[in-house]
Request: fold
Amino acid sequence: MRLLKTDRYELVEANDIPEPFPQYAILSHTWISPKDEITYQDIKKRKEDIENDLFKQKGWAKLRRYCDRAARDGWDWAWMDTCCIDKTNPYDTQEAINAMFQWYQDAGICYAYLDDVDANIIFSTVGSAGVNDLEDVDLDNIAGADNVANRCSFRHKALSPFVVKAKWFTRGWTLQELLAPHYLVFVDRAWRRIGTRESWADEIKEASGIETPYLTAFSPTDFNSCSIAMRLSWASGRDTTLEEDETYSLLGLFGISLPLIYGEGRWRAFNRLQRELITVYNDDSIFAWKAEQTSRSRINRPQWEDNGSNWGILAPSIRQFWDASKSQSVWSLWRQLLHDKPRSGN
Reply:
């Protein structure tokens, strides 16, 4: 696992990181575009061009501001997927994807960067006095009733609809990045802190369908309280750039590993995931899928008929779990029934 040294914007290889392994910050974000983000190869081969404003300035600005944000909060080390993974190395990519949930879980803090939410512009648009000069103000560090964590505050109410509509909630990889960290804080476009995962719990539920208890106590191997179908329902409306990542981005949510086969396609990747889940776990909610709700969710699958015939027992797509947010396994329901059943007297 490579890390960035926040005070120098320097990438440090795993063998050069001091022991014991330091506490680190981690970033959850949506990519600008693959051609704009700073990659591992960019830092290794074109660092001078980047620093001299000749190459990838949008991505460099994001990396610097992320490191500045982390350093400002006292973090000397940070991790960022764009440059800390060598995506040209299949082994490096395989290791990173299978370990990703754990890396987010082990981080001291996770910054969720909402690049389409700008607190200053939002407050200026609604025209409230005294909130137009927030260039360097963290909204979760304001004393009293004006703190953004206060659901009754003007700031919380003004930002709420924009947080709900943030692109970050529509991407596949950010699902595990929302659930894995012990401590997650949202930052807006200007890298101002705008509150924690807990302070935005209602908005997160509206945007993602995830109930509040799972935001603070999610366990990949606890299927009694959170079934396979429920987890797949959270991912059913999210998108990824590569179609196989629709499945690979979910591995950490189930505590399993799979070989990565880019080019196998959406259906084969998801089929392999379902078979592995059936093998490893005793949770029949995996069969609680139904036909897609709208034509928007349909995918190209030449081996399946659009009318649903010949689909078999496994779902052809994660989209079929759109209505499974309340599904539980039969075993889980039975255990709950036995637990709640009153005991008869002697």
In short: Residues 295-309 have pLDDT under 50 and may be disordered. The radius of gyration is 22 Å. DSSP finds 15 helices and seven strands in the chain.
